[in-house]
Design brief:
The protein starts with a helix and ends in an 8-residue tail after the last strand. A two-stranded antiparallel ribbon has the order 1-2. A two-stranded antiparallel sheet has the order 3-4. The protein has one domain. The protein contains three helices and four strands; from the N terminus they run H-H-E-E-H-E-E. With 137 residues, the chain is of the alpha+beta class. Helix content is 48%, strand content 16%.
Length: 137
């Protein structure tokens, strides 16, 4: 009887180790980073589906979050798309990146990234433009 109990305790211990290893692999910074990257690529692909021909139909929004706070970048999108769904996806990405930064103690520069001044259309693609003269006045 004692052998059976010892065997069962050993089996449970081995199963717990494997379960913890699997959880560590699935919940690793690398795995979560790949998920974030896939969502970012999906967002970029959605925005890239539309040609930039009329700049008045384009807007931009902050995307992602730096570890110190503030946006990681900006992305252009057209008003021709389902903007509500697009902006919800961007917000989800931003919240996931914020959680990732906190969970994995990510370090980044703490430079404030100012929003672009405008959007230009170049070769059918939106281009975010930062006017250098903003701080000169």
């Amino acid at each position: 009887m004692e052998r059976k109990v010892t065997f069962l305790v050993g089996l449970v211990a081995v199963l717990m180790v494997f379960a913890c290893e699997k959880q560590t692999i699935m919940g690793s910074p690398e795995a979560e980073s790949l998920q974030l990257e896939a969502l970012r690529q999906e967002i970029d692909s959605l925005a890239a589906q539309y040609p930039c021909e009329d700049v008045t139909e384009w807007r931009f929004t902050a995307i992602g979050e730096k570890a110190c706070g503030g946006p990681a970048g900006y992305i252009a999108y057209t008003t021709e798309m389902d903007t509500v769904a697009f902006l919800e996806k961007v917000a989800t990405y931003t919240e996931l990146q914020k959680a990732y930064n906190s969970k994995w103690d990510v370090v980044s520069d703490c430079m404030l990234l100012l929003p672009p001044s405008r959007i230009d259309c170049e070769d059918g693609k939106p281009k975010l433009v930062w006017d250098e003269s903003l701080g000169d006045s």
